[in-house]
Amino acid sequence: MRTVILGSGGKLGRLLRPRWPGTAEWTTRETVDIHDAAQLTDVLTGADAVFCLAGVTPGSDQPMDLNVTLARQTLDAAQGAHVFLFSSAAVYGALPGALSETGPTSPQSDYAAAKLAMERMARAHQNPSTVLRLGNVAGADAILGGWKPGFTLDQFPDGRTPARSYIGPAKLAHVLHTLAGSAELPAVVNIAAPAVVAMGDLLDAAGLDWQPRPATAQTIAKVHLDTSRLEQLVSFTATDSTASGIVQDWKTKGTL
To answer: Residue limits of the NAD-dependent epimerase/dehydratase domain (predicted)?
Structure first.
């Protein structure tokens, strides 16, 4: 099986590459110009699975709708290879409860709106694809990956810190590798470990000092991705959702 990973020079790609449980072709903007249709088609010729990590993230000076363009260019060049496009839990916004792929979306930012537009484009495209609504990835996040001395974190009056759906980078690599080899794939799937984890617990498990700051009315207390669909394809252990397990995964540079 031939797997090609586009846009692997970013933070997520750098986390995944040393943890990938198999062979894959890792490309960056320096090795493949995704805007060059002929070059991209040549690279993807004969591929079975394509993961498109290329995209615009919040804080970038590039237009957010470039996420739609990059995904479309990948689908156009894929020639029937199954394409995995990275969306985000941000498409759910501040909706309550366990967030299901079949439920509503409520994007609250230009980034989230662009990701949702990308999803809609992919559904209408003739090339087969699966949209991955990715939760927080340890090391590519603003908490573990963005920590620095003097770090502050929202805390609610009862002492809780925001809880999010997380996944360790090695577990994520295992999940993606498993999906690439799966015969039956959904059009959209949430990607995270099954249970949420408190951000403060992650910092504590990693031994990273932090100071609390009062949560505001805009602070979202919990973002919980429903992973029932994913769990039909990939097995998880209880440790995959714990702060200590996620941190251990992040600190281990190798495959599961």
So the answer is: 28-141
Instruction: Convert the pLDDT of each residue in 49-94 to its tens digit.
Output: 999 999 988 888 899 999 999 999 999 999 999 999 999 999 999 9
Does pTM top 0.85 for this prediction? yes
Does domain 3-251 fall into CATH 3.40.50.720? Answer: yes
CA distance 176 to 20: 9
Residue with tokens 């794939």: 185
**Interior angle at CA 50, CA 44 and CA 55, nearest 5:** 105
Token duo for residue 68: 């739609």
* Structure tokens, 207: 């031994």
If 0-12 CB within 10 Å is exposed, 13-18 middle and 19+ buried, where does residue 225 land? buried
pLDDT, tens digit, for every residue of 10-54? 999 999 999 999 999 999 989 999 999 999 999 999 999 999 999
Distance of CA 95 to the CA centre of its chain: 19
Tally Cβ neighbours within 10 Å of residue 24: 21
Structure tokens at 137: 């990835």
The residue written with tokens 């690279």 in the block is 43
- Cα distance between residue 211 and residue 233, in whole Å: 39
Q: Which of 58, 175, 191, 210 is nearest to 136 (CA)?
A: 191
- Which single residue is written with the structure tokens 């967030």? 99
Whole-number Å distance between alpha carbons of 86 and 128:
14
